[in-house]
């Protein structure tokens, strides 16, 4: 495998000829659309285009909503070891709430492709946002916690899930220990029936980091309780923030540096964003709202706007600017170069693998790069 960055006057057929790959493979792997126009600075994966014969050596989970496109799901599952179904909720009475759409298809498809289906538990309120009052009410009550864990256990067994992923965010500092105890009891219940439990962690960079996102998460305690943890190492660039990389490598590295002091590396998965943002300019805090877009979609946007793609060597992330209807825009997204930087971190620290938020859009070059990277690591090991 090789990553090639498009230069002026490059064509699909010229690149294919120069690198001894077929144009059809180049088009397929990179999801190029007719007439196959390229953007200067666009990163292409030069690969054989073959599907994986086995799962990547690293553990890889991807989050998916029940309304995921069937074709996208079938194209993605060959590269996943786990499919995290998003999501189940619960009430202030500790009663489990299933997704609005039936999740049976995702469970069946996961097993068909050799991946484990995982039930994701979230504390969403009626507004669809994380609700820390809901968390507080349940984790501070032994009775309500037990009821929720009992319903979780019954549901995973009835539906055929292989485990549970607990994704609670904005936990109050006063609920930190109660939340850890809840995860510990939930893990014990899953283990008693031969299933697994994981927990998603906000991207802390120190034990005493201030902020609602961080103070309720006890890295050491949660790492001890869970079978593995997912570091949510993304959203530095976000919908209401200023334009910047979604997962800048220096910030991601700081999170990993701290995490490995509290949790064994072999229990840590690196969170990877499968999306980017398009910000209208100028940015005005409290007013500007970025639009989410897929990584393949971002490149197609650059092509359609005649924009050259730049690569920030510090953040290890691609970006570009364009103007439409008199409004300037700045786009940050992920490509195979930024993904390579993340895979390098996983290997450098000996982490368990990766977790993708989310897999609703297909990014084929990413999956093929990941599969090749960790197959090589497996052979060398």
Q: Could you provide a short overview of the structure?
A:
The chain has 381 residues and is α/β, with parallel strands linked by helices.
Q: What order do the helices and strands come in, and which of them pair?
A:
Layout: E1 2-5, H1 12-18, H2 23-30, E2 43-46, E3 59-64, H3 70-76, E4 82-90, E5 96-97, H4 104-112, E6 116-121, H5 132-139, H6 142-159, E7 163-166, H7 176-192, E8 196-201, H8 219-225, E9 228-231, H9 249-262, E10 268-273, E11 276-280, E12 291-293, H10 295-305, E13 310-312, E14 317-324, E15 327-332, H11 336-349, E16 353-357, H12 364-380
Helix pairs in contact: 6-7, 7-8, 9-11, 11-12
Oligomer: single chain
The CATH topology label of the domain at 59-274 and 336-380 is TIM Barrel
Structure classification:
alpha/beta
Question: What about the largest sheet?
Answer: 8 strands, parallel, barrel
Please report which band the strand proportion falls in: under 5%, 5-15%, 15-25%, 25-35%, 35-45% or over 45%. 15-25%
- The helical percent reads 25-40%
Give the overall pLDDT as a whole number: 95
Describe the global form.
Answer: globular
Order of helices and strands: EHHEEHEEHEHHEHEHEHEEEHEEEHEH
Write up this protein:
Strand 4 (82-90) and strand 5 (96-97) form a beta hairpin. The two termini are 19 Å apart. It is built from twelve helices and 16 strands. The protein has helices at residues 12-18, 23-30, 70-76, 104-112, 132-139, 142-159, 176-192, 219-225, 249-262, 295-305, 336-349, 364-380, and strands spanning 2-5, 43-46, 59-64, 82-90, 96-97, 116-121, 163-166, 196-201, 228-231, 268-273, 276-280, 291-293, 310-312, 317-324, 327-332, 353-357. By secondary structure, the chain is an alpha/beta fold. The longest helix has 18 residues, at 142-159. The strands form three sheets. The protein has an eight-stranded parallel β-barrel, surrounded by six helices. It has a five-stranded antiparallel sheet with strand order 12-11-15-14-13. Strands 1-2 form a two-stranded antiparallel sheet.
């Amino acid at each position: 495998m090789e990553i090639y960055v498009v230069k002026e006057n490059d064509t699909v057929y010229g690149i294919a000829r120069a690198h001894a790959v077929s144009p059809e493979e180049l088009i397929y792997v990179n999801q190029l659309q007719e007439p196959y126009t390229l953007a200067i600075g666009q990163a292409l994966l030069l690969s054989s285009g073959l599907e994986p014969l086995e799962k990547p050596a690293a553990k890889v989970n991807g989050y998916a909503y029940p309304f995921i496109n069937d074709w996208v799901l079938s194209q993605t599952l060959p590269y996943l070891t786990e499919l995290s179904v998003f999501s189940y909720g619960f009430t202030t009475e500790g009663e489990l709430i299933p997704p609005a759409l039936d999740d049976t298809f995702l469970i069946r498809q996961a097993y068909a492709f050799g991946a484990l289906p995982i039930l994701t538990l979230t504390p969403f309120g009626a507004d669809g946002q994380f609700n820390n009052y809901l968390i507080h009410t349940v984790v501070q009550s032994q009775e309500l916690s037990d009821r929720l864990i009992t319903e979780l256990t019954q549901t995973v067994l009835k539906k055929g899930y292989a485990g549970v992923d607990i994704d609670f965010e904005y936990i109050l500092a006063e609920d930190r220990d109660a939340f850890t105890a809840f995860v510990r009891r939930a893990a014990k219940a899953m283990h008693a029936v031969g299933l697994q439990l994981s927990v998603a962690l906000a991207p802390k960079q120190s034990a005493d980091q201030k902020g609602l996102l961080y103070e309720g998460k006890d890295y050491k305690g949660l790492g001890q309780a869970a079978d593995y943890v997912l570091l949510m190492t993304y959203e530095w660039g976000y919908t209401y923030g200023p334009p910047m990389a979604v997962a800048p490598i220096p910030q991601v590295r700081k999170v990993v540096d701290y995490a490995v002091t509290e949790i064994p590396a072999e229990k840590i998965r690196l969170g990877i964003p499968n999306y980017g943002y398009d910000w209208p300019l100028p940015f005005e805090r409290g007013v500007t709202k970025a639009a989410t877009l897929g990584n393949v979609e971002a490149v197609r946007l650059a092509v359609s706007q005649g924009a050259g793609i730049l690569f920030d060597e510090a953040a290890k992330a691609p970006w570009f600017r364009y103007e439409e209807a008199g409004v300037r825009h700045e786009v940050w997204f992920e490509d195979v170069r930024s993904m390579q930087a993340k895979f390098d971190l996983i290997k450098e620290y000996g982490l368990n693998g990766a977790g993708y938020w989310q897999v609703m859009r297909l990014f084929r070059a990413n999956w093929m790069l990941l599969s090749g990277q960790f197959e090589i690591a497996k052979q060398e090991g």
